[in-house]
Structure formats: structure tokens, C-alpha cells
């Protein structure tokens, strides 16, 4: 017991330092990343759609073509991060995407909008899976759900704070002679460039180089992570080469990619079209909203989502991540999103959409704790990037198909039923993946040994 007490103390302080020194900064990078990615959703109903004469399908295509650019360089970018280190590569990504995002300030046609959205995806390629990989390389698996949950809080909070910020910036119409939506693009782009420069000096690639850790903490993290990687190699046998074949040849990776597809399909259908749906409340319910009213209403579902995310990942960390931690929210989201169409007031509609947002954001950080349980090294970089690539395909599909189906059907009934279908499919696939063992074991558990359950 005497030997274990100091080890437990070192573990506790090491994880706390990583949580304080790295997670908030990487989460801030994600906050700015997601705000730049979804800024177009605030611009469209507040002047951009009218100025560029966009139909719903054109807006959906402009929103979604970002993901095609992202897909082109997704896996190569994450492999480059593995080779050159997170500090250099994440800093490079942020500066280049900030520059491209800045150019949206002067877009003047739908063609230019398509081009810049594609280039934004190219510039951002690899950021999200790179951040997931980076954080996964700093903590043992039993702490990973907690760390990724703290990181993932940035995504719903981007809308909680970003929607009112976007509304306020849009209200600065006429500043520098620009329309309000152009002012918004100008000021949400600059932080990415600044953070990219800071990241070059602030981030550290691995625990062994962290001077803010004590020697004991560095040794403990390095030893724990090395032991886990060796254990993964032992579990995978001769296939554990840490190369691309391991990731691309893994049935688990492809199944997880399909699960993630359904979640992201729902995520971006909400992210890109919720402001437009809220704008439509004015005609549907014969009411009027100011720009700031619409911004605050857009933010409403995401604050409860952030709270649910925090406590859901905390529960999964304490009790072991089980299949229902991912499949359960997928069922709730899949059922609730179509129900929103049948509510009789803006308040009831937003309340049901809030349930959907809570479901999506509760599951996502728990889901991302799974791949690094059985992949390491270059295989982890490629596998995580491959799974995220499926999410980017969903991002494009949900954006374009939602807009196209809305134009075709004249309402959001059909596209949101499709969102529900894909989320229910994710739940079914997650259950099937766990059932391959013929057991009710957790998808992941507090202790590294429990990774066998998804085999």
C-alpha cells in the first residue's frame, strides 16, 4: 500500500496538470475552428443568402463542399501530424484556415463561396482528428473519456457563445463599409491566425518534453502510455505493425466510421440549418425576431447539451463506458428530431431540438474514447482520420441533401426524418459491434484491459 500511495498521487497530479495546461488551449482552438466552420450558417439568413441569391440547395452545397475539401487531405494530414508533431502541424493548420476564412469577407458570388468553402476544408484538414490523437497521446486510456469530454465541451459552447457573438457582429452593419455578415466573417477569422502562432510556442508534442511536469509525473505518464501501446501490440498479434494496413483493414474501424457517420449527419443538419429553421418561425407562427433574437434562440439547445455532455462523460469515466453510453443517445436523438416537426410553437420546437442536441453531444466524446483503445502509432493516426473522414462525408451529405430535400419537398419533414434514420442506424451498429463478442461487456472500461469487448 505504501508504494501505491505515491503512485496514485503522481497519477492524480499528472492528469490534473494535463487537464489544466493542455485541454483548455486545445479546446479554445476547437472553439475557433468550429465557429469559423459554421459561421456561414449565421450569415445565410442574415443577408448573405439574399446578397448572393442562394437557394436552400445552393446553401446546402456551399455548407457541405467544405467537407469534400477536408476529405481530400484528411488521412495525409493526420499522418503528417504523426510524423512532424502536433505543435507544428496544428499551428500550421490554424494559420492557413484563418487566412482562408478571412477571405469570406469579400465573397461576391455563389461560385466564389463554393471555392472558398472547399479551400477552407483543405486548410482545416486534419485538425479535429489531430487534436483527438494529440490528447489521446497524453493520458492513459482510463482517463481518456474525461479528457475528451472536457475538450468536446468547446463544440456546443461554440454555439452558446458564438451565436450571440455572430449576431452582435452582424449588427455592426456598415463597419468599414461592409454588410453585417461580412463584418462577422472578418472578426471571427482573425483569432485563428493568432492562436496558430501561439500554438507553435505553447504546445508540446509528448509528456517526456513537458517541463511543467515533475520528473516523477513525466516518468509515470511515459511508462503508462508505453505499456498501453505494448499491450495493444500484444493483443493485435502480427497485424499490430502500427501502419496503414492495420487501420484500413480493421472491421472495427469501418464499423465505428459508420456509427460516426450517423452522429455527424445529425450534428451538421442542426448546425447549418437550425438558424434558417428559426428564421422560418417568423412566417410559420406570424412573429418577428431581431438578429439578436435569432442568435439567442439558436444558442438555446447547446447550453443544456454542454451540461449533459459533461455529466455523461463523467459517468462513463467513473463507471466504465458501455455500449448504451453511445447507442442510447443515438436512439433518443433519432426519435426526437422528427418529433420537432410536429410541435405547435417555437418554444416546443426548440425544446425538442434541445433534446436532440443533448443526445448528439453526450455520445460524441464517449465515442472518441473507443478507437485509441486498440490502435496506436501510425495506425491510430490513420484510423482516427479514417473515422473522421466518414464524419466529413456525413457533413457534406447532410448539408447538401437537407437543402435539396427541403427545396424538393417544400418543408423540412423529409430531411429531418432522414436525420432520425441515420442516428437510429448508428445505435444499431454500435449494439451489433458489441454483440460480436456475444457478451454485454462495455465498449470501453475504466481499466485498459477491458478493451477486448469490441473485438
UniProtKB/TrEMBL annotation:
InterPro entries associated with the record: MFS, MFS_dom, MFS_trans_sf
Sorted UniProt keywords: Membrane, Transmembrane, Transmembrane helix, Transport
TM annotation in the entry: 18-35, 55-77, 89-108, 114-135, 147-171, 183-203, 253-275, 295-312, 324-342, 348-368, 380-401, 413-435
Compartment(s): Cell membrane
Membrane topology, record value: Multi-pass membrane protein
Residue span(s) of domain Major facilitator superfamily (MFS) profile: 22-438
Source organism of the structure: Streptomyces coelicolor (strain ATCC BAA-471 / A3(2) / M145)
Physiological role: Component of the tartrate utilization system and may allow entry of tartrate and tartrate dehydrogenase.
Domain of life: Bacteria
Name the UniProt record assigns to this protein: Putative tartrate transporter
GO MF entry, a single one: transmembrane transporter activity
Gene Ontology CC: one annotated term: plasma membrane
Main location: membrane
